[in-house]
Amino acid sequence: MRKNLFMLTAVGEGGIGLLLLMLPAVVCSILLGIDSPSPEAVVMSRFAGAALTAIGVACWLVRRDGDSAGQRGILVGVFTYDVAAAALLAYVAIVRNMVGIALWPAVVIHAALATRCAACLRLGDTRDNV
Questions:
Q1: Mean pLDDT of the chain
Q2: Phi-psi bin for 99: left (phi > 0), alpha (psi -120 to 50), beta?
Q3: What residues make up the domain containing 70?
Q4: Region at 66 (left for phi over 0; alpha for psi -120 to 50; beta for the rest)
Q5: How confident is the model at residue 125 (pLDDT cuts 50, 70, 90)?
Q6: 130/121 Cα distance (integer angstroms)
Q7: In-domain check, residue 116
Q8: DSSP H helical segments within the chain, as ranges?
Q9: Cβ 52 vs Cβ 27: under 8 Å
Q10: In a domain, 117, yes or no
Q11: How many domains does the chain have?
Q12: Separation of alpha carbons 27 and 24, rounded Å
């Protein structure tokens, strides 16, 4: 269960991270409905892209570590990120009315991933780790 979660997170977040690094305006458009982001938004998007790429790399490297302290640490970090991402994206949609075509699917995906992380942490699941 954890191995699949780490692989999915590595590919998903790593891919979005690289897209944010290379084409931040595209992500701003499909996620937030912003057609022409400010230069400041582009810079911050690229910082977010670097962070997401780092999350993806960390998840990829730890995917086969079994029930190690390092894997649990990454899992707690990814759980924290997914909860915050789901909440922040929902806030942006509801309060700021910034909604692109991919915003609500992103909220649902992050909430589902946070739920999966919580289940792995709660159950101490070590199946499918090797």
A1: 93
A2: beta
A3: 2-123
A4: left
A5: low
A6: 17
A7: yes
A8: 2-22, 24-32, 39-62, 69-94, 103-123
A9: no
A10: yes
A11: 1
A12: 5
